[in-house]
Amino acid sequence: MTAVESVAPPTLSTARPQTRDRGPKSTVLYGLIIALAMVLTAAMLWTCAPVIAAQFHHGVLFGLLTCAVLLFIAYFWLNGSKDLIYPIAYHAYLKDRLFNPPPSRQLNLPRVMLLYCTCNDFNADSLARSIDQDYLNFGVAILDDSNDPTFQRQIDDFAATYRGDQQIRVVRRADRAGFKAGNLNNFLAAQADWDYFVILDSDEIIPRNFINRALDYFVAAPGAGIVQANHVATRNRNKFMALFAHGVDSHWPVYQSIKRRFGFMSLLGHGAMVSRECYEAAGGFPHVVAEDICFSIAARDAGFYTEFAQDIVCEEEFPPDYLAFKKRHGKWTEGNMEFIKNYTRIILRSNMRWFEKLDIVLFTYALPLTSVFSVYILINVVFLPVSDSSIRFPVWMLVPTVLFLLAPLMNDVIWHWPHMRKRRLAKYLGMSTLLFGSMYLISLKASIKSMVGGSFFTVTPKVGERVGPVELVRHSSGFWAFAFTIAAISWLTTGSVLPVTLLMIPALAAPYLIRYHQG
Questions:
Q1: pLDDT number for residue 204
Q2: 95-119 pLDDT tens trace
Q3: Cα pseudo-dihedral 381, 383, 387, 392, rounded to 10
């Protein structure tokens, strides 16, 4: 076993980017997204002008609140335009024009390190299958942040008894500073015997040709500093995993292919290869929860791009139950809020093109902006009704609003329609609506927690929790309290629960979702 001393947190590179031949990136898609949103917003402002004037006549505060509501709707339409146009662009245009480099002949085999990151969630089978590569010059290191002696023994036994050609290095550090980023930096900054490294999460299984094929992308795209592989969700052990894994299978190839061509393609935390030149130019991984996108931005400013390899298909596991999914969602929200606080100025100053910046904003700001949506609800459900005021929008605005509410489901429908039974597809879409709708409360709590107390990297549980009646009440109480509270407020102020129905129903469904994995 080898121990490596911790290193100081890296800093973002301030070097000016070099010009690199990466291939075309197009403004067309985001031009269409902005055009659609602007047309709808202009029509909204035109038809709502009498409403705005009436509200200002009622009082300046009412006028400003009305403008705030319209601004939120305009942002919702912009984000919805993205969700609508992304899958259409992929299936109608990009699917048959994907970047697919030919195999390259590696004369001087670069040294590649497989870095398996674990923290009390070691999976021996996943690592053993990932190590089985058709490439000669690579090494394996288990970067173990576990504090559970049981997992530490499992890792030591695996390294000592592994019968393959590779010697497994186990690396532990004295503390867990910097979360996953600190774990990676602790190894990479202290070792010199590597040219590329591959990031593996504990449940990751990479295909046998991963290293060889990823190197093909580096050869074909000289500007690439990161090659991010595709993923599907496998090893589904219960109903929860089997149903919601469909979303992983459809999301990865469509959204990442579009981002690679028309937006900002990022390292996505695992199943990716990074070059030494890129790592050093970016200054290592920033010690934040969302280390993957922050590193990608630093790499982009240093002149490197992230390539997406749709034909390299890795396996990952969907969270095993609702409670694990909830914990992962909260971590993502906290990480994105931390990203907003620390990286907004960096993005604005970056040399990235305008549509890359917009792509980052629309995808990473969505979860934390739940808190802004809370203000929207307070204005419409509490303040205006109590003040004996209301906003009556033109009926036509319901059409784009409903369309954009359903837009996030469009990609799943197009992707799964040809080969999934329609009854199961309908069930998946309905359950997904409940699942993500119930995450509103989690996003709100995580956003507030991150703003007040900072963010913390939480490891997603890999084993489902057995939930009995007592545990069910404990886990559901917050959701039900939230649902009944907003329903009571809406009833008292507006005489109806209809304004909060889309928040109330998913929250009430939480007990069903919590027990769903138990069949």
A1: 95
A2: 988 888 988 877 689 999 999 999 9
A3: -50
Longest CA pairwise span in the chain (Å): 80
Per-residue pLDDT at 456: 64
CA–CA separation, 114 and 270 (whole Å): 11
Q: Which residues of 366-396 are buried (b: 16+ CB within 10 A; e: fewer)?
A: bbbbbbebbebbebbbbebbeeebebeeeee
The model carries a pTM of: 0.89
- The answer to whether 306 and 331 are in contact (CB under 8 A) is no
User: How many angstroms separate the CA atoms of 230 and 225, rounded?
Assistant: 17
Q: Which residues pair with 138 in a beta bridge?
A: 112
Query: Euclidean distance between the first and final Cα of the chain, in Å?
Result: 43
Residue 267 has pLDDT above 80, yes or no: yes
Report domain extents, the chain: 109-335
**Domain 109-335, architecture per CATH:** Alpha-Beta Complex (3.90)
How far is CA 167 from its chain centroid? 34
Instruction: Calculate the alpha carbon distances from 466 to 70, 179, 280, 439, 463 in Å.
Output: 45, 28, 45, 21, 9
Q: What is the pLDDT of residues 400-441, one digit of tens each?
A: 999 999 999 999 999 999 999 999 999 999 999 999 999 999
Place of tokens 């970016």: 282
Answer whether 318's CB lies under 8 Å from 245's CB. yes
The pLDDT of residue 439 is 92
- Give counts: helices (H), strands (E), the chain: 20, 7
| Strand blocks (E) in 218-353 | 224-233, 272-275, 305-316
